[in-house]
Amino acid sequence: MTEVISHQDLEKYFIRYSELDSHQSSFHPFDTRLERYQRTRYSVVGRPKEGTKDGKYHDEGAGFSVVYLKIDAGKGVGMHSHASSEVFIPMSGKWRVQIEGGMESVAFPWDVLSVPPNLLHGLENISENTAFIMAINSGNTGAPIRLSPELIEELRSNGEDVSDIEIPGESLSKSKSNT
Q1: pTM for this entry
Q2: 31-157 domain in CATH 2.60.120.10?
Q3: CA-CA-CA-CA torsion sign (145, 148, 149, 151)
Q4: Domain residues of the chain, as ranges?
Q5: pLDDT tens across 35-70, in order?
Q6: Scanning 17, 32, 149, 166, which has the fewest C-beta atoms within 10 Å of its C-beta?
């Protein structure tokens, strides 16, 4: 028999948009060290170690994470890949989607992009305004990512120590968390 819950109990399962600021993540992926990849991340479901302000999570056994990315016009997410699939759903704006091999496409609000595992991909907000995109990954912690060799070289050229980043095709001592 299914247990009936109260309205108060039901509310603990909501992440209200009006409360979104309290879910701003303290985690900054390595690519955000370059200005064009700076963004605000909101951990909505999963990823409790990313340190939001109120710690309201509903991920016990969820097996996935949902992150909202707030990205200014002209900025994006650097080319990266990981061993798990990743789903992107633009919530506003217009997005250039880049895939390894030089392929590009444009995504609009409510389009769904399902990126297969191990495929290098990146995003850029090509709108005139700040826009939101949702990222969904399996697991509650995010898969370790591999930055593209070009992005690693650019970071290195800017004086960043990239010795502990996993490079596609190479195995190094550490890897970083996802998008």
Answers
A1: 0.82
A2: yes
A3: negative
A4: 31-157
A5: 999 999 988 887 666 655 555 555 555 678 889 999
A6: 17
Cα–Cα distance list, 80 to 5, 42, 77 (Å):
42, 19, 8
Residue 71 zone, left/alpha/beta (φ > 0; ψ -120 to 50; rest): beta
Give 46's contacts (C-beta < 8 A, 6+ positions apart): 57, 59, 62, 64, 65, 66, 67, 137, 139, 140, 141, 142
pLDDT one-digit tens code per residue, 88-121? 999 999 999 999 989 999 999 999 999 999 999 9
